[in-house]
Amino acid sequence: MLLTPLLPAGAALSRVMCHGALGAISPFLTFYPAVVLAALLAGFPGGLMATALSACLASYQWSVPLGASFSVTSVDRLETVVFLVSGIFLSVLVEVMLRARVRAEKAEVRARCAAEREQAALTIQRERNFLRQVIDAAPGNIFVLDASGQLCLVNEAMARFYGTSVKEMEGKSIHEYLQGPKEVTDRLQEENRAVIAGRILGSELSIPDAGGRVHHFESVKSPVYEDDGSCDKLLVVSNDVTERRQAEQALKQNQELLNSIISGTPDAIYVKDTAGKYLLLNDAAERIIGKKAGQFLGRSDRELFPRQEVPAILRENRIGHDPAEVELFEDTMTDAQGKRRTFLTTRGPLYDLQGNLTGSFGIARDITEQKLAEEEFHKLNEELDNRVAERTEQLELAVKEQEAFSYSVSHDLRSPLRHINSYAAILREEQSAQISDEGRELLDRICKASSKMGNLIDDLLELARTSRAPLNEEPIDLSRIATISSLMLRQTDKGRRVEFLIAEGIQVLGDKTLMRIVMDNLLSNAWKYTVQEKIALIEVGMELMDGQEVFYVSDNGTGFDMQYKDKLFGPFQRLHGAEFEGNGIGLATVKRAIERHGGTIWAEGEVGNGATFYFTLGKEALSYPPQLRQNSAFS
């Protein structure tokens, strides 16, 4: 505003300086710029002031001295009026322009401020969203409490823990969720007050989740400060350490169990570092050495054992010579009582988690008594071998004697029997006229007795051969052998009505000669004891009993009383009278043949209802007779 009067003065000076060139033409020419500049600098008031001053300066009063011929005319007055109007118009125009510019600048400022506020709001919202995502992504429970215990902020983990939502929890009291004994809630409130007062505290708490399962939490509580430095809230970060506690408890239990095993085992157990110094020694090792573990820990073998034993111990306990190998060896040492003892030791390497060798372990079992027992066992074995050799020699001699006896029976006894039978037959045929009826009867008895004696000798020889004949096992068609035996029996008495039911395809692994003896005797036995039946039925078959193949021969003959079943297979044992032929050797022969195959034989029967003979061919004999089959032809 102070420069406003100077602008018209400057314009007047410029007009005077240009008077020579311009003359009296356009006296207000230099004053228009002054008015515009004044309006720009001082607004509408400055423009009016510059217009008035310019009009005065350009008027007649101050222009008269410039020339005597100058006079005020109506044109001059009109120019003055036009100048005044133009000055006012220019002042108004400039004022309007200035105000428009100010409004535009203010609008721009307001728009910029609004944009900045919006950007700041977006930034704050992004930061809040980021913070919320971070808090919600945290696995632990995070929440903010005010002084009254109201939840101001809760993360998703805490909402999930209580089986609800964040919106449901925020604004509620923490005591609606943390329910427990009064002393616990009092302690928590006291901790919260201490935190709001400016302390940072850690605490542990066990609380149930929505399902009632108790979880263990470790929490850190810290104050939340306002901008003015005051504090009326606290931040709580809780981590669920239930699994860690359980793992620690399990680890502790395993450690206790391992310590119990190490302490309770009778074997000596030790652990050494790579320098050969003891790190662990169990109770058994203490008892053997006669020293406490405290005397061993941190010391090496050179410091603990007699000098004469150290080289051997060091050789056997080398560390790191082959880290991948676990060794098993025997060593000897002197125990606390001065006795030499033998140990079977297992030694191996120990590694850390990175695979670096950290030492070795050893488990030593006292086998002194075992070694003594082995020595005694070897002595007994030698003695037993000698006895077996002697017994084998005796058995070989007995076999030779039996063979000689069999030869003697076969030749020396058969010859007199043949003579007796021949002479009796000659007497009966050639001297029958001179012999009385009683004499002929006696001769018949002599012939029958000699024939029976011959059969008995044959059966005894067969029994002996069955016991000592070599066993030649091969696949055998037992059905075919039984069929051949049945055909031979039919030839002995073609008039009998006997039906044989022989299962087809019974295959066994055994000695063909012995199995033929078995089937011949069993079928002959069935043939003999069904002689009184109008229609005799004899069955040969096989079935599974307790997973084992069991073979059987059944008949519908006379049968036997089960109380005498133990006598069936003894030599010369007969359960029936003289009405049935036989000498009691056949079933004994069958039993020996079955036993030669590693099997067993037994019988079941009932007087008047037939009998069934069962047998197995295997390494393991049945310890008890299986249940009688239900699919027999005689059931």
TrEMBL record:
InterPro entries: BphY/WalK/GraS-like (IPR050351), HATPase_C_sf (IPR036890), HATPase_dom (IPR003594), His_kinase_dom (IPR005467), HisK_dim/P_dom (IPR003661), HisK_dim/P_sf (IPR036097), KdpD_sf (IPR038318), KdpD_TM (IPR025201). One of its GO terms (biological process) is osmosensory signaling via phosphorelay pathway. It comes from the Bacteria. Pfam families: DUF4118 (PF13493), HATPase_c (PF02518), HisKA (PF00512), PAS_4 (PF08448). Residues 408-621 form the Histidine kinase domain. Keywords: ATP-binding, Kinase, Membrane, Nucleotide-binding, Phosphoprotein, Transferase, Transmembrane, Transmembrane helix, Two-component regulatory system. It is found in: Membrane. SMART domains: HATPase_c, HisKA, PAS. Transmembrane segments: none annotated. Residues 127-196, 254-300 form the PAS domain. Its EC number is 2.7.13.3. It is a multi-pass membrane protein. GO terms for cellular component: membrane. Residues 201-253, 327-379 form the PAC domain. One of its GO terms (molecular function) is phosphorelay sensor kinase activity. It is an enzyme of class 2 (transferase). It catalyses: ATP + protein L-histidine = ADP + protein N-phospho-L-histidine. NCBIfam families: sensory_box. This is histidine kinase. It comes from Geomonas limicola. The lineage of its organism: Bacteria, Pseudomonadati, Thermodesulfobacteriota, Desulfuromonadia, Geobacterales.
